[in-house]
Design a protein that fits this description.
The complex is a heterodimer of chains A (103) and B (171).
Chain A: H1 5-25, H2 29-54, H3 60-90
Helix pairs in contact in A: 1-2, 2-3
Chain B: H1 4-26, H2 30-50, H3 54-79, H4 91-114, H5 116-119, H6 131-138, H7 147-168
Classes of the chains: A mainly alpha (103), B mainly alpha (171).
Chain lengths: 103, 171
């Protein structure tokens, strides 16, 4: 038995599905952000694994994963700054209670 | 050809990814959710180590497990009272989420099954990858050089630092 490309894609797919489920059902803003991280992470796995198995003599997928990790870190930092500021103004982080920006 | 240890390790990693990502989105306590996210990210780093991308795995541990999860824990402790659980979800939204997740996974499953002969690829030999090569690729403007995205990312990170300070500072 050998480990094939498909065997890495299945856990990554399940991780992405969990991310979608959490993104829709969670009501806490930080929990939504955690689900978003799950989705981004599964995409990173796909980039690296496709690169390693289908094009083992190049490193484009690996570099794309590196840049995606950097972007995800920046995005999380700004999102958490926004959440903390919202909490300071409204005293809650529930997505259903924050409706001031709704038209 | 993989050794038996590699295959065992693969099953441990795959089980960890599946179990901990399901727990991340189903647990009721937000701090536990962050902890399970940490375990999922560590299992992902183990995937990178297993396919031979050591630098990517180290980056994953340093940035995700070391940086982002700590940020999450601090944000949770700043915005939650102790013992305050996440409120129960409405059933309408839960069905919507389950439907969306299963539909998306089903479409992806169809794509995987219809391309199964390409995806049954075995692990080939890799071109020798060193940190020296990575540094040269990041700093070159040749065909496989990444100077422009590297500089764009550094400008983006600077903008994010300034934005984070401006948004979250006390007035």
């Amino acid at each position: 038995m050998e480990i094939t490309l498909l065997m890495y894609l299945v856990p990554s797919l399940i991780m992405f599905g969990c991310g979608v489920y959490g993104f829709i059902t969670r009501k806490n803003m930080i929990a939504i952000l955690i689900s978003l991280e799950l989705m981004l992470n599964s995409v990173d796995i796909n980039f690296a694994v496709f690169n390693r198995y289908l094009f083992p003599h190049q490193f484009e997928g690996m570099f794309f994963s590196l840049f995606a990790i950097a972007i995800a870190a920046a995005e999380t930092a700004v999102a958490i700054a926004i959440i903390i500021n919202v909490y300071r103004l409204a005293k809650k982080v529930d997505i259903n209670d924050i409706t001031k920006l709704k038209f | 050809m993989e050794t038996i240890g590699n295959i065992l390790m693969y099953f441990v990693i795959a089980a960890a990814i599946i179990v901990f990502s399901v727990l991340t989105v189903t647990t009721k306590k937000i701090l536990r959710s962050a902890t399970y996210l940490l375990f999922t990210l560590l299992a992902t780093a183990a995937v990178y180590f297993q396919i031979g991308y050591e630098f990517l795995g180290a980056t994953q541990i340093a940035v995700y497990a070391g940086g982002i999860v700590v940020l999450f824990v601090f944000a949770i402790s700043l915005t939650h009272k102790p013992g305050n659980d996440a409120e129960p979800l409405t059933s309408h939204k839960r069905w919507l989420g389950l439907t969306a997740a299963i539909a998306g996974a089903g479409i992806c499953c169809y794509a995987l099954v219809s391309n199964v002969n390409i995806l049954a690829q075995k692990l080939g030999s890799m071109q020798d990858f060193t940190i020296d090569k990575l540094g040269r690729a990041l700093m070159s403007t040749d065909k496989f050089g990444y100077l422009f995205p590297f500089e764009a990312i550094s400008v983006l990170l600077l903008a994010c630092i300034i934005a984070g300070i401006v948004i979250a500072r006390k007035r």
